[in-house]
Amino acid sequence: MIKLRPYQLDIARAVTDSVMNRRGLTLSVEIARQGGKNELSAIIELTLLTAHMGKGGTIIKASPTFKPQTVISMERLKQRLDDWGFALFYRSELGYIVHLGPARCVFLSADESANVVGHTADILLEIDEAQDISKDKYTKEFRPMGSPTNCTTVLYGTTWDETTLLEEAKQTNLELQKKDGIQRHFAYDWQEVARHNPAYAQYVESERARLGEDHPLFRTQYALLPIAGGGRLISNTQLAMLMGTHPRLTSPNSGETHIAGLDLAGQEETTDRASPSRDSTALTIARMTARQEAQILNIYTWLGTRHTDLWPQLLHILKLWRCRRLVVDATGIGEPTYDYLYRQLGPRVMPFKFTQVSKSELGFHLLTTVNQGNIRLWSPDGSAEHAQAFNQLRLARSQYRPSQTLNFFVDPSDGHDDILMSIALCAWALKYPPKIATGGSYD
Question: Residues with Cβ < 8 Å from 147, sequence gap 6 or more?
């Protein structure tokens, strides 16, 4: 049988008390990632279904997506029903409803396109991963499901930014708590979870070392600290960490391994080929050390040059540096350049296609690499390339979306982000490290 931890019991008691005594409270719950939120939810559902199996009633649970989140929640409830001896007594219906006698739990998707109007919750309304659910979808379609019976509502999740549904519910609950003393918001960060699970403590400590304590994912998923909806991508502390002490090089030292990131200008054709308003094609070259650190040695930029005209120059530079891993922006018109370089250099060339999701992953990886001290620019030398790189890193903005994805860019009013993106692509190459060179030819 499952034994709930003390912090889970506190939440379970508050929820069941509000349900059984028809208090109709709206509760918000933040538990650090992998701290037992989903298990708690399943046990609450099991308890309430058991309590209502004689008279009936409906629990509704909403998740951001049907697959996999809703399906996983439904299967977890079935497993707990099996564990508690109800295997012969519950039944499934329509692929999203679980019955225990006349009581039932209805699992719904809160995706924007999901049609959920018409359902009614009279036992409990649960909103899982509420930070990822649209406030408009919740307010218009889910919240009214519990209004006819003054149904208790629970919003579960982890922190994200200050604009999410969960954060809004949290702030409302904190204000209400001050007025009447009834606890409506429950928050248990990784340290609280770790008090009851030493193995979890070891895991999160390793994540903190890997990501860095100020990484957005560590702050939100484990420390439960919200991030600002927008602002600088890289802090002053991180900028200082990016500044190396090694010199800039114009050609490689023998026996070293080099990686690169290539960001291609978005347009090849314009009436003003050298317009300063246009992005450049940017190539970042870095030395990869034995400790998997990327020491940026040189940055090349081309403004207003057709991609096809660049191919011989790019190939010459990459062969000069004997680059053993190159990540290329292969989005849209960048694909022919990737194809050309792949034909010439083989699988050491890797494509990167920019989408909302992949760019978010790229940004988070860049922050992780910076926090680990694994990417550094050459020592300031007064060069235009160093100044441009530092300026783009300094001016880079972050935009955190409710879907827990990150967009990063330099505002057009501040300049360009071509070198920033080439540095990020170079950092991405560290995810797929080539073997450290031991001399010999560039095969």
Answer: none
CA distance 62 to 390: 45
- Report yes or no: 60 and 73 within 8 Å, Cβ to Cβ: no
The structure's pTM equals 0.76
**243: DSSP letter:** B
Write out pLDDT tens, residues 41-70.
999 999 999 999 999 999 999 999 999 999
Which residues share a beta bridge with 329? Answer: 352
Question: What's the angle, vertex CA 354, arms to CA 394 and CA 300, rounded to 5?
Answer: 55
- Structure tokens, 250: 């114009």
Query: Which amino acid is it at 119?
Result: H
Determine the Cα–Cα distance for residues 313 and 228; give it in Å rounded to an integer.
Answer: 42
pLDDT above 60: residue 440: no
For the chain, domains (ranges, CATH) are 6-210 (3.40.50.300), 228-429 (3.30.420.240)
Mean pLDDT of 386-410: 91
Q: Name the burial class of residue 441, with classes exposed (0-12), middle (13-18) and buried (19+) by CB atoms within 10 angstroms of its CB.
A: exposed
* Closest to 401 (Cα-Cα) out of 365, 370, 357: 357
